[in-house]
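Action item from last meeting closed. Structure (461 res):
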């Protein structure tokens, strides 16, 4: 094995692993969706209360435009809250599901804003017996803050175009991320328009106070969890790179030292967002899972080079300071069953390795790890995994070779059932590329595993 750049104690492994807590997962996603729905109903009732009886097509369009506008303003708050890194959401729902909700919610909110603009303009035009174009000019030039709100709308359309899947694939993550920051500018530009022109807020001080408080609360939470908390964590734990170790071609482990790392409260399977304070990396923060759980003075991540950031970590110098945000993620073992199946694809082994090392021996009646790689050179942690398996009496299957070369899919339901007798009685955890994860989840379902017993995470947003 290639020597690491500094002597680093062995990672937490067989002996040192901390058993995960028994987690009884509350139905957090359902509760959060219900709260979002109740908020939307409250917004509609605010509009209802302040809307006089509607007469005529123009008034109907205007009314529809008003409620769409209110729902857009509320939608912004929800979208930002989902990405505010609130620990209960990050841990209870999971970062990848939150990101999916955010992306889907973003499409709804853009549609609401666009519907608001079109319906209001058309409704005013009908009521004033004007053409839509001349009414649009009147709105832009005579109504307070409409011009700013229109700039906000165009900004949002631009961000939506950047976020469309086809464009997203061609963009570096950073470009996409910084384009997204313009959302805050759009929200700020549109805020005063809501009070200046919104019929539901005119003469309703209570509504104005409640609405402003909602925005202020979300702004405060963003500032606290995204800016202040990481700095406080840095001051307390003093995260510092201890060394970098090549694990396989294009894959390195980064050892991070610090104070009281075991007090971080991280669970196996979780991740942090890491900002390495080196010259070219300090402005980026990227998510990487723990591949070894924190001990008081050391923890480890393992990273595959996929682009600028991940590719630069091999040249990190010992002593580099690190700002770490987390722990995040709901991909943690629930320990509700006695048999656990772990399936890792490629670098998806990182959280799975941490889980594997932390499973208690009482599960030895059925711990199986399936590690899928296209090439034998891509397998990492082989010695560690074999040592953990020997200690636990667990089974490890290294499933190596591309499907094209093998001539079959070794993770199909048929082969999974052959590798894991009694598969339908297992609790399964899957982490790997999106395509592989989808296929394995489908194969597990086809093998009789209930949906609630299958947990998965992909590294793609
Ligand atoms: C929860 C989670 C845990 C992860 N854990 C690991 C890990 O343990 N080991 C590992 O090697 N990789 C992990 N990743 C993936 C890792 O974050 C990306 O490979 C890395 O950020 C790529 O950045 P880049 O600048 O090198 O490449 P870029 O060229 O910027 O991006 C390459 C690809 O990575 C994705 N990506 C980039 N940055 C991010 C980001 N901040 N959030 C989400 N997706 C991004 C993009 O979709 C893009 O397709 C994890 C991702 C997530 C979401």
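Sequence:
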């Amino acid at each position: 094995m290639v020597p690491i750049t500094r002597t680093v104690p062995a990672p937490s492994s067989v002996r040192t692993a901390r058993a995960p807590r028994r987690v009884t997962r509350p139905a957090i996603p359902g509760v959060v969706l219900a709260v979002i729905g109740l908020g939307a109903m409250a917004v509609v009732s605010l509009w209802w209360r302040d809307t006089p009886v509607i007469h005529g097509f123009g008034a109907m369009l205007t009314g529809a435009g008003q409620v769409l506008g209110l729902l857009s303003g509320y939608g912004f708050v929800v979208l930002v809250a989902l990405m505010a890194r609130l620990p209960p959401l990050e841990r209870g729902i999971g970062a990848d599901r939150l990101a999916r909700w955010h992306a889907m919610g973003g499409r709804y909110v853009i549609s609401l804003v666009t519907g608001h603009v079109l319906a209001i303009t058309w409704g005013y035009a009908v009521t004033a017996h004007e053409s839509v174009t001349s009414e649009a000019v009147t709105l832009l030039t005579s109504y307070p803050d409409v011009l700013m709100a229109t700039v906000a709308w165009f900004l949002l359309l631009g961000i939506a175009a950047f976020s469309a899947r086809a464009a997203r694939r061609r963009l570096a993550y950073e470009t996409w991320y910084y384009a997204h920051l313009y959302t805050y500018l759009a929200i700020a530009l549109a805020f005063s328009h809501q009070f200046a022109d919104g019929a539901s807020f005119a003469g309703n001080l209570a509504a104005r106070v409640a609405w402003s408080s909602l925005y202020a609360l979300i702004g405060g939470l963003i500032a606290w969890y995204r800016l202040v908390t990481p700095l406080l964590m840095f001051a307390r734990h003093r995260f510092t790179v201890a060394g970098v170790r090549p694990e396989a071609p294009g894959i390195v482990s980064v050892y991070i030292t610090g104070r009281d790392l075991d007090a971080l409260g991280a669970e196996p399977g979780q991740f942090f967002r890491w900002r390495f304070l080196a010259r070219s990396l300090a402005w980026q923060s990227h998510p990487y899972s723990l591949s070894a759980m924190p001990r008081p003075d050391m923890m480890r991540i393992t990273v595959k080079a996929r682009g600028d950031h991940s590719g630069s970590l091999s040249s990190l110098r010992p002593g580099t300071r690190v700002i770490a945000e987390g722990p995040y993620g709901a991909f943690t073992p629930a320990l509700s069953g006695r048999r656990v199946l772990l399936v890792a694809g490629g670098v998806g082994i990182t959280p799975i390795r941490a889980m594997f090392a932390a499973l208690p021996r009482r599960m030895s009646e059925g711990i199986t790890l399936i590690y899928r790689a296209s090439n034998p050179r891509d397998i990492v942690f082989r010695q560690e995994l074999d040592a953990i398996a020997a200690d636990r009496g667990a089974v490890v299957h290294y499933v190596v070779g591309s499907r094209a070369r093998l001539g079959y899919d070794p993770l199909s339901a048929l082969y999974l059932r052959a590798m894991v007798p009694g598969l339908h009685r297992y609790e399964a955890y899957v982490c790997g590329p999106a395509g592989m994860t989808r296929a394995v989840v489908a194969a597990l379902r086809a093998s009789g595993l209930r949906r609630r017993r299958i947990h998965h995470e992909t590294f793609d947003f």
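Note appended to the action item: The longest helix spans residues 95-128.
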